[in-house]
Amino acid sequence: MILLFSNQYFYPDDYQKSIFEIDYQKLWKNGIRYLFLDVDNTLASYAEMEPGQKIIELFDEIKSLGMSMILLSNNHSERVGRFAEILGVPHIPSSRKPLKAGFKKALKKFPEASKANVWVIGDQFMTDVLGAKRMGLSVTVVDAIDRDKEKWFTKINRMMERHVLRRIAKANPDLYSQLHLDEKR
Q1: At what angle do helices 77-87 and 53-65 cross, to 10 degrees?
Q2: All domains of the chain in start order, with CATH
Q3: pTM score, two decimals?
Q4: What would the mean pLDDT of 123-129 be, rounded to a whole number?
């Protein structure tokens, strides 16, 4: 699958250690009004059944800026729905990222959303970054919270991700360095 897409489909617009290090005020100032967020290993580890207080406070802070958010996850409805209910945001479970269908459903939830005012946040190059880029959306990739608890299919994605990171480093070392992707390894 990796060879089917050019390198640019795997180039995130930003890299941060965690969702807590993203400058949401800067995103707002740059016209971003909608955030599409992954759940597993982005907001919480697979072992956590609901968002912690720190995540709840972050979501409240982001909402106070005027941004709307949606949880866009490949996980099942029960898990993603629980997070969405507690955080007070809509959700798209079983989104099948990197396919476009889940992203399109998320865009339909916000009729005013456009490719220019949406930002995607996730932890995987093979689902979050690739899916966002296929849709023409900007994306921040963050470090996974707990790789030890990942499912077998995510571990396969991580093997492919290592290959993608090597491709980025070789094809575009300036971007690789600028985004601090060497820290992600």
Answers
A1: 60
A2: 2-183 (3.40.50.1000)
A3: 0.84
A4: 89
